[in-house]
Amino acid sequence: MSSLRSDDTLSTGADYEALAARFLPVFAEIARDAVERDRARSLPHEAIALLKKAGFGAVRVPARYGGAGASIEQLFRLIIELASADSNLPQALRGHFAFVEDWLNAPADEDQRAWFDRFVGGQLVGNAWTEAGDVALGQINTKVSRRDGAFVLNGAKYYSTGSLYADWIDVFAQREDDGSDVIVAVNVHQPGVIREDDWDGFGQTTTGSGTTLFRDAEVQARNVVDFSRRFKYQTAFYQLFHVATLAGIAQAAQRDAAALVRSRKRVYSHGNAGLASDDVQIQQVVGEIASWAYGARAVTLQAAQAVQRAYEAHFGGNDEAERAANVEAEIASAQSQLVASEFALRGATHLFDALGASAIRADHALDRHWRNARAVSSHNPLVYKAKIVGDWIINGTQPPFVWHIGNGPKRGSQ
């Protein structure tokens, strides 16, 4: 990759200790109210405001433009810590960081600089890609069209993660005039954008993943971009957010299990020690939880290195090397998702084996770890991730870089 630019216009890494000193105290403040937010389903507007004020949304923006210039691995080290504090927040920011990543890969022009300035200024971007209801596989009902010399957007999106906290929404749509797929950046501060808090999942309840309606929402022409320009490792990047969130949940399960065992006074007559913390079987349980958390973190950061290589390959001037790096990133992301999902769910269940019946009290909210891990790991079917990896390992079949969800053909129609 000899042609890779060596100046500070790329985000190839920062001083992680400085990043940690800057953001970990913010995450700790966010963690203080995480249990209560989960119990009351209270949307984390204050937590989002803290992250915006700290400049977290610009951590990947190159240093030359006012960001931190963090690498993808450094970003996900921070995301794991944030997920450990409150696993809803990384998912709420997932669309934002993908949109940032797209502009990191875009041509260095006035539009890129304008978006960098917005990110550095604290503006956040939500996500609105999925359509539900009677929508055929691959069909896009959300349309952008010209009206009176301007662009307007009409349609409905579901699972609009993070959009309740955003200044802009990244929308997957279709041009009405030529049928081409486009990405549309819509400013939420207008009557034509209606955001609803109607997400009803049993986990990840405060991610801001509700319905978004667009009714003649105005869009600037420069914010309608052909989908083909989208950064090539986007699926790997999106899925790695889930992996890092799972790693953070596993870490939180380890933290809570250790803290509750350490402070536990009640023991069983048929146990192994006068204190739960000295009971060798309980120590084994916590050791297993900690090891699974370690494994989830390790595969996350290993995959993040592959995604960083895909980012850098984009600027290397070698199409084949870039394609190979994108394949590596996709496979690494899929493998890490399989491992982290299993480890996080194991840890979130096993922690109850280290405690007594008091562990199920609502004020501990320990069930949130399993509920949240189950919600995150259900987003993209693990069986298909395993199939993609197996097909690559056996047959060398290139993984899909973009995929859709929708209704299949009716039974008997083929």
Automatic annotation (TrEMBL):
SUPFAM superfamilies: Acyl-CoA dehydrogenase C-terminal domain-like, Acyl-CoA dehydrogenase NM domain-like
Keyword Transferase: no
Domain Acyl-CoA dehydrogenase C-terminal span(s) in chain numbering: 241-380
Keywords per UniProt: Oxidoreductase
Lineage: superkingdom: Bacteria
Domain Acyl-CoA dehydrogenase/oxidase N-terminal: 28-114
Alphabetical list of InterPro entries matching this protein: Acyl-CoA_DH_C, Acyl-CoA_Oxase/DH_mid-dom_sf, AcylCo_DH-like_C, AcylCoA_DH/ox_N, AcylCoA_DH/ox_N_sf, AcylCoA_DH/oxidase_NM_dom_sf
Keyword RNA-binding part of the UniProt annotation: no
Protein name per Swiss-Prot or TrEMBL: Alkylation response protein AidB-like acyl-CoA dehydrogenase
Lineage: Bacteria, Pseudomonadati, Pseudomonadota, Betaproteobacteria, Burkholderiales
